[in-house]
Amino acid sequence: MKKKNIIYWAVALVLVLVTAYSTIHVHNARQVNDVKMQSESRKQAEEDAQQKRLLADQKKRLIKPASWDKPTLSGGYPDISKYAHAKKKEERIWIEVNLRKQRVYIRRGPYTLYTMYASVGKNYKKTKAYQCTPIGHFKIEKRRGVSYYDPTRGYGARYWTAFKDDGLYRFESVPFDENGKVIKAEAEKLGQKVTKKHNIKAYGSIRLSVPDAQWIEENIPAKTRVVIDSQDDKRDAWEYLKVD
């Protein structure tokens, strides 16, 4: 009987120790999780504050009205060369195209470094397939150039940079005619609201002012990510990209 009692007491002691260990472990895990959540919350608050400051600065520098032969913002373009070999997603340069706002954003991780007026066709139900703007995630291609003219479409552009289908879809300037003169009726749509009646027939390409298109052609390297938002999606594109 004494031997059995010793065994019972030993088992009970083990159970008490296991319970105590489990309680301490759970408590510590909760503390670690709380610290992690607080850290993430502080980081998010700092990111939000920095993004707000950057956008407020760009709003002040916005040149109005939009002009096809001027940059979107005064004060010059951002120096992105220092991020050329960034490994972390938070440090990498990427481009967001917002159909709803008719804007292109040069971004580094969660931050917007530069805002550009854009003319982007919206994909209404009767939009022909070859005129649709591709929606989703893409990458800047190697193909680019200082000008082109397409007689089948009756216009060309300056400073083009491909992002899909080997040059079929591009960032490019507002359109120019065969004589090298800007097509004003189309250039005036830069940054303006698009409707079914006044849609941008750019065959899926993204139109910018000449200086903005030139900056992208000269500064954005191949393989840079491009995110084209759905016109109905109001979430920050970074939320998708950071988990992609």
Strand order of the largest sheet: 3-2-1-9-4
Helix content: 25-40%
Question: Briefly, what CATH class of the largest domain?
Answer: Mainly Beta
The CATH superfamily of the largest domain turns out to be L,D-transpeptidase catalytic domain-like
Shape: elongated
In brief:
This protein has four helices and nine strands. The protein has helices spanning 2-61, 184-187, 210-219, 238-241, and strands spanning 93-98, 103-108, 111-117, 136-139, 144-150, 155-164, 169-173, 206-208, 225-228.
Question: Could you explain how this protein is built, in words?
Answer:
By secondary structure, the protein is of the alpha+beta class. It has 2 domains: 1-47; 62-241, L,D-transpeptidase catalytic domain-like, CATH 2.40.440. The protein is built from 4 helices and 9 strands. The protein has helices spanning 2-61, 184-187, 210-219, 238-241; strands at 93-98, 103-108, 111-117, 136-139, 144-150, 155-164, 169-173, 206-208, 225-228. Strands 3-2-1-9-4 form a 5-stranded mixed β-sheet. It has a 4-stranded mixed β-sheet with strand order 5-6-7-8. The longest helix has 60 residues, at 2-61. The termini are far apart. The model has no long low-confidence stretch (mean pLDDT 89). Keywords: Cell shape, Cell wall biogenesis/degradation, Peptidoglycan synthesis, Transferase.
